[in-house]
Design a protein that fits this description.
- The protein is of the alpha/beta class.
- The protein contains 13 helices and eleven strands.
- Helix 5 (129-135) runs parallel beside helix 8 (210-230) and helix 10 (262-279) runs antiparallel to helix 11.
- It binds nicotinamide-adenine-dinucleotide and glycine.
- Nicotinamide-adenine-dinucleotide is lined by residues 42, 44-45, 48, 69, 71, 74, 101-105, 107, 127-128, 130-131, 134-135, 138, 140, 150, 167, 170-171, 175, 178, 262-263.
Length: 364
């Protein structure tokens, strides 16, 4: 097992990464301060892992909310279901909410923990690659609004993140690829040697080689913890973690939540961000080709969805959370391994980029 620390003063917490961690109750129990817990999971994950968690929680008062599965349920209705269970079950302020699942469950549960009685304890048990490398770490929680992805939420840090890599054995291939999008992101924005390692090991990662996955998860979490430790509330540096996300969130909203997976939309979005970086004169055509090649080899789309228009992108990108005082800011690549947030790009280049990607759209 590897233990990393997210260094946030009194809100610091460990990330445990390893095989068989769900079978180590002590790991979880040491982070539960009170006598009660509410587990939140979904209809896919519950039959796979709920009983192991129930065993680990024996002796506590435990209730479980099982939500329907899917990005479409990262909604106010699901949040209300959790609030109802907490209020009707008379859970007090010393309760711990435990998220057992992927990023959707983690984000909703975190927001429920942030808002119930103005904030209760929260533990993340991520069971997808995407959640283990990204969404369970850093304290961004929330839900979607029909008009915009992740529009409602709060920063609320967990007390611990327990990433049992054995859970990835049951993950569908398409979901594994979606998680690889965020792994590739860390190489592109922060660590060129890590990108080179991903390029050399992409087949091992897709074949779920445990050693390769463990290294990818560890390095991704190290980078995320380093960035979040410097800028928890995204007043600057943290925004680089959103490479490709402004394009990607527009894709997710336009296509209807859940049709394109978050990681797929981010994969295509990173290709778009790389091309815009080239149009701005920051990176070379070879760098763009390199970005596109690794995204393709990870099994991810490199084009916008068929039928999506430049105007749809422009409209949806205009409500991104990085818009400040009406000005759109984007994460672009200064070079491979270094990203920068900027509002200082040419609007004409953005239009060229959007036109290229929307006219070259291929069916998926
Ligand atoms: P997800 O939560 O929808 O999980 C993907 C699918 O895998 C679901 O069908 C789920 O039921 C299933 N699943 C989960 N664990 C499984 C397992 N071990 N075996 C078999 N199936 C399993 O999607 P995701 O990719 O984990 O997360 C995407 C979400 O995370 C998006 O809503 C995105 O906005 C959010 N996100 C948040 C942050 C953050 O910082 N908070 C960062 C990145 C992404
Ligand atoms: N996934 C982006 C962030 O956590 O900031």
């Amino acid at each position: 097992m590897h233990t990393l620390n997210v260094d946030l003063g009194e809100r610091s917490y460990p990330i445990y990464i390893g095989q068989g961690l769900l079978g180590q109750p002590e790991l979880l129990r040491r982070h539960i301060p009170g006598k009660s817990a509410l587990v939140v999971t979904n209809t896919t994950v519950a039959p796979l892992y709920r009983s192991r968690l129930d065993q680990a929680l024996e002796g506590l008062r435990v209730e479980t909310v099982v939500l329907p599965d899917g990005e479409a349920y990262k909604s106010i209705e699901s949040l209300t279901t959790i609030w109802d269970a907490l209020v009707l079950g008379r859970f007090d302020r010393n309760t711990t909410l435990i998220a057992l699942g992927g990023g959707v469950i983690g984000d909703i549960t975190g927001f429920a923990a942030a808002s119930y009685q103005r904030g209760v304890h929260f533990i993340q048990i991520p069971t997808t690659l995407l959640a283990q490398v990204d969404s369970s770490v850093g304290g961004k929680t929330g839900i979607n609004h029909p008009g915009g992805k992740n529009m409602i939420g709060a920063f609320w840090q967990p007390l611990a993140v327990i990433a049992d890599t054995d859970t990835l054995n049951t993950l569908p291939d398409r979901e594994l690829s979606a998680g690889l999008a965020e792994v590739i992101k860390y190489g592109l924005i922060y660590d060129e040697p890590f990108l080179t390692w991903i390029e050399a090991n992409i087949e091992r990662l897709r074949a779920r080689d445990p050693e390769a996955l463990a290294y990818a998860i560890r390095r991704s979490c190290e980078i995320k913890a380093e960035v979040v430790g410097q800028d928890e509330r995204e007043s600057g540096l943290r925004a680089i973690l959103n490479l490709g996300h402004t394009f990607g969130h527009a894709i997710e909203t336009a296509t209807g939540y859940g049709n394109w997976l978050h990681g797929e939309a981010v994969g295509a979005g990173m290709c778009m961000a790389a091309r815009l970086s080239e149009l701005e004169g920051w990176i070379s055509a070879a760098d763009v080709a390199r970005t596109r090649a690794i995204i393709e080899r990870a099994g991810l789309p490199t084009h916008a969805p068929q039928g999506m228009t430049r105007e749809q992108f422009q409209h949806l990108m205009g409500i991104d959370k990085k818009v400040l005082d009406g000005k759109l800011r984007l994460v672009l690549l200064e070079h491979i391994g270094k990203a920068r947030v900027t509002g200082d790009f040419s609007p004409a280049n953005l239009i060229t980029c959007l036109d290229e990607f929307t006219s070259s759209a291929e069916p998926r």
